[in-house]
Amino acid sequence: MSSNDESLGGFLQGEQEPSASWAILVLGLVASLTFLTLFSILYPGQNLPVLSDFETFGNLTGGIWFFILGAIFGFFSIIATMITEATRE
Amino acid sequence: MSEVIFMDAVLSTMMIFWVLVFAFYALVHRGLWIFTDVARGMGLFMLEKALGPGIELVEGRENSAARSWIIQSALWLFFGATLTFEGLWLAHEPSALHSLSAWGYNPTSASLSSAGEYATLYGAVGMAMIGASLHIMPRLLGTELASERNATLVSFLWSLATFVLVIGAHDPSVLGAPVLVIGTTLQTLAFAAILINHLLTLANRTRAIALPAWLIIIGLVSDPLALLANYIAGGFETGVGQWLMVHMIGGTFFFATIAGVVLYTASVATGNALWSRTLVGATLVGSMIAINPLGAIDGSMAVGMLGLSAAELAPSMDERIVASFLMAFALIPILAFSGNTLVTIRGEDASVENSDSAGIPEINLGAVMLIPLTIGALFIQGDTLSGVAELSGMATTLGKMGIWLILVPLAFGSALALYPAISGRHLASQNRARWAFWLSAGGAAFGLTLTLMSDVIGMSLLSAGVLDPSSLAHDLSVTGSVMFYGAVIGAILHCLNMVSGLFRGTIVAEASATASSIKADSYSLASPTSVRRILAAGAGMDTEVVPVGESDDAGSATKL
Questions:
Q1: What is the pTM assigned to this prediction?
Q2: How far apart are CA B378 and CA B373, in angstroms?
Q3: Which of B496, B497, B502, B504 is most worth mutating to test chain A (most A CB atoms within 10 A of its CB)?
């Protein structure tokens, strides 16, 4: 067992974060966006469940929202980087 | 005060401005007679003790002020890029953000473009430029910054002022309050503190003032002096005066200050000596004497920020001639600055430092784009002043090109290049910085060029009297806005790189020890060469230079 690993009654949890774990997160994000796009192809003219109940999200027409989503993602990654880097031991 | 106008408004305003700048130059050399020590003491008191416990909120370590300004400039770059992108998008799809009206937010292309200009000019460019100047001035003057704490504290006030200006660009009056004027007041407070800080630093100098320091200090002080000159000449009420204010501040506060910052950075970041002192002098004098043509074709920004009543731009024949002459004259400082920067970056021989390090490609881009865009702006301003206004359809996009292809690359490139010296650490990733440069530069250049093409088609159809909109112009406009999104991604990458670099970047001292992967134990000297070229080939202080014998005798077959 590596000295960096912590044993909790047989349960092992690594202390180190694999560098490629972010790729899984990106994959998940791309997959969810793809399925959201698929939704509009399979059910044209249908509103998205739950989200469409909100007035703003119900009228998300036009491609600009995909770009704004990217910008919001970027903004939150900047905030997340600030927080995680500042609190990193 | 219009009685002081003895010729046309343009020349009289400029002459008052020249006298004020010369008076400032004389005061820097002569001091304030017996009031010098009193002014210095009062200035220091205002910067620190007068703020009471507020000043204890920030640290006063060396370079902490520059770091604070530059990190905030990176954040504003992201907001500026996003707002400009949305403005470009809404130009071809006005109802794209209609759904936000449910939250009471009804942006238009014009309001978003204006908000993007405030965020980029005063947030990204202004903060990067002032941040870099806070690092540069003490080094050029051989002293310390008068008050690191105050400069750090007012960075937040400047950011708040920019935020208020961005709100004001959407709605100039909220609950009856003039938002843009409030933003300008807050910004003036922060600017006054920075100016006093720089002047006190200047007063504590231990060596002669280097030319880039002159550019920075005169550029900064020209902002209030340009306003004062316009006020004395009665330009606040006239369209010509309002137009002139925008161009005087653009040519001095933005251009001259950035020129000083860039010329210092070009030398420090590449390890090359500044190419020509004469050209720096030409840049300094020329930027004060000439009217910079880059910028808007009206004085709407000055009108909004100062709460003036907008007046029609209707120059007299004399004013047209003087303004056109002084704008053409601006090519001298612009060519001098651009040429000096480019040759300094390239050096006269091999570069010892890495000339591809972060920030240098941006400076290169800004210096290269300065000349064609200035010539383009010269045509558009001349066309506007003459009253023909045939090219005014291109003015907005050309203004954006001036911001995103000149001011942002020069100011932010300098901030990136000085980042290691300011923060003590390198950027988190040089590779990410390279990606950010290509995305930003490519996105802004291609996106805005396509938008400009769309504008030209629209203008041609308008002049031909064709009422049907062109599908090609629409497609180009769509593609242009999508491509400009590269600038948004580039800004995000720059921001992440700078923030991570503060915590995880390689420490500068460590990096210097292992900067070169080439370890030359010996160097074969075949022909006469310079020490610079030997060092650039990877040689160090312990490398053995071995002269290789040469002979001019005719060769012969090798004997086996």
A1: 0.83
A2: 8
A3: B496
